[in-house]
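User: For a benchmark we're assembling, each entry needs the component sequences followed by a predicted structure for the full assembly. Here are entry 17's components. Please fill in the structure.
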Amino acid sequence: MTAEQGTDRGADVRWALLTGGVKGVGKKYSQDRWAARATADGRAVVLTVADGHGSAAHFRSDLGARWAVEEFTACAEAFAHEAVRVGADAAGWPELRAEARLLPQAVGHRWHRRARFHDSSAPARGASPAQRAAAHRRARGRGTPDLAAYGSTLLGAVLTEHTLMCWQLGDGDIVLVDDGGVPHTPLSSGPDMGDETDSLCEPEPWRKTRTHWQPITGGPPPAVLLSTDGLSKSFADHQGFLDFATGVRERAAGQGVAAVQGQLGDWLARAAKYSGDDTTLVGAFGARYDTSDATGGHEPHE
Amino acid sequence: MASRPVHFIWLLDCSGSMSVNGKIGQLNFAIREAIPEMQQAADSNPAASLLVRAISFASGASWHVSEPTPVSSFSWEDVHTYGGTDMGAAFKLAAGALQTPPMPQRALPPVLALASDGQPTDDWRAGLRAIDGTPWGKRAVRVAVAIGDDADKSMLKEFLANPELEPLQAKNPRQLAAAIRWMSTAVVKDASTPKVEDAKPATPLGPPLTKVEGEADIW
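Assistant: Structure for entry 17:
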């Protein structure tokens, strides 16, 4: 996993990144993985979180989540460079959008290749005979390798001065908080019931990946927060979760992202006590860079 | 912030045949004895709040415990036999409880635990369709115990909705107690296990209900 904190300067927007993750109560180790980094000379940011399913049937999901983050980051960085190159030229957006739609397929293929390779190299690691037998039965039934052991969700975003692109496979939340403090969840598929989720371990997972595209034509980019489901499921209702997201953005604007980063671990640990799940949040806060401000600074200003 | 509820619903056969050879008494005893272990299982998972209730069915069906009761304050009052085996009516009653509302959207999958010793005497398929027609019903973790040889095991298997699973079989009081204990604990833990969408229900396999030497099958 990678994470960069602090600020990165682009031509016109500065980015401040927020990252944090805690292990679920009673778990030996966390199956969440994440990355948040600036790319394209600081003119874009890539955010991603992945939640390995973590139960006995998904006994290698820590690996699955790690590969999800690595493969998404690799693909998203290439996309981010292209998005920066296109910039505000709306004529280039249709092609950019087409490329964005293909990204889940690229990530899915790369993830499946790694999982299949690992499974063929070490088919028995950690699996009980009963688990192996069940996996073989499932594989025979559908004629494709059973990669359930590696199952993971994947959420990702690429944010530039002019465009925002988000992808989501499985549960978890992407919240955009605009300049007025209003939260939006563009990829929400309604309330999650139980703990069912779409997963990278399914055949052709890109078919279930949801995508959101948003040009940024005026004002600062929205705050972008990605979290695994351990966070939203710790709240009594969805509105409580949205209020939390709004609060994070308000505190970042008022106290600075570094101050929020200092408190984030405690907030997530408290949430994990209620959801029982690994809980991870990454975020990006962008602010227009005032070119007349020769002294710069370490925090974005809005 | 708040932990998520797990709704556990007993579906108990109270037909006349359950009074033969003390089955109903052993069922009451087994459930009562399993409560402390159920409470322990709930304590070990602070992220879930276990809420228990029960339906009895014979000639018709009714709520034996109608309020979802926190397991910490749950106590058992005996059920009694009173007629046929209207399992379909019990399913319909459960289906009503599995609608959203009254079930919250933010919850862990409910558990439906069925115990029966005979053949349903009403349209149980219609009742099962009603359960499957609710958002939580089709996500429910389902377990079933067949008490004695006369239980309709193929019907119970259909209730489980997973061709890889079989109903538990209890042919004597010890096996019934083991089955009820397992249904009360292991299944509760499984209900909070993540599932890949479209996968078959991942209800855990039951305990091996082997025969102890010298033990007779009395049912």
